[in-house]
Predict the 3D structure of the following.
Amino acid sequence: MRAVIALAAVLALATATVFFEEKFGDGWEDRWVTSEAKSDYGAFKVSAGKYYNDAEEDKGLQTSEDAKFYAMSAKFDDFSNEGKDLVIQFIVKHEQNIDCGGGYLKIFPSSVEGAKMDGESPYNIMFGPDICGPGTRKVHVIFNYKGDNKQVSKTIACKYDEASHLYTLIVRPDNTYEVRIDGDKVESGSIEDDFDMLPPKEINDPALSKPADWVDEKQIPDPEDTKPDNWDQPEHIADPDAEKPEDWDDEMDGEWEAPNIPNPEYKGEWKPKMIENPEYKGEWVHAQIANPDYAADDKLYAYESFGVVGLDLWQVKSGSIFDNILIADDVAAAETAAEDFKTRVAGEKKMKEAEEAKKKAEEEAAKAAEAEAEEETEETEAKDEL
């Protein structure tokens, strides 16, 4: 049985098309273009970061300058995703403990020129994490539909620690999408339901309105309730404990009056108690009719042209590393890469823990040496006193 499953996986990969794959090995500079739309874009460098599983294999594209916009892209052969799955996947590691900045990709049509790419360049899909303080820690999933960028209506939380994380977007020809983080599904749904692309299927019937005699107040004031005779009391009264100062001069200071204080007997404005309304008919519901402006679109997911992938970002604190960018038409290719990612993360974690343990041991040794030195000093001073 295992052999059959393994063979099926191999056959799936054999038939899958990988449109773009980038691991930032030798020659990556020839594949990527820095935009010339601005003269002060931040510079990328290649680095595996502070912690890694393999110093060479884990190298990625890292932002290197604080408070900068970044704009770099790579071209690939033009394709359309109509009638097939689209998989977008990449690794990002915010090892700088990012405070505010983007960690997402933009996938453009082939018509976009890398040297001219900027924040206004029209893209097909934007996908990945965006972080700015505790209030913004989400995964962007944005589809362009007829010239408008449509953000997913659901809030998808992103990772914001300093470890590597794998982000995967799957767009299927049945007009559905799925988001995975580190290989695990975190969100999915219908593109029509979760993106504001189409008008609603139904609308309120314009020929109907709530009847004038419709009663929708659940409660009313009790008509039999009456205000108590002693209810009305002033909000403030003269302080009964106040005394006129001995040096008060009525001719010079005027007639003395005690200061006002809140009246403990004051009960506020009287209102009759509320009772159930015997005339209540319930909440009026507007009848729905088919929306004449609605037209189904079974190709919300589809784009005629993909041909450029780009990093168009702003980062306050630099240090994010992007790696293992994959664009394919088969989920199996992404899942294979996800297995490799698990090995990478395990090694990264092992290296970090080893370094932290080493640092802790060095700090403890330094404290012990300092304590020993202080003890020797105290013994020397004691001998000198003798």
Remarks:
- The two ends are 86 Å apart (CA to CA).
- The helical segments are 2-15, 28-31, 191-194, 250-253, 331-385.
- The first strand starts at residue 18 and ends at 22.
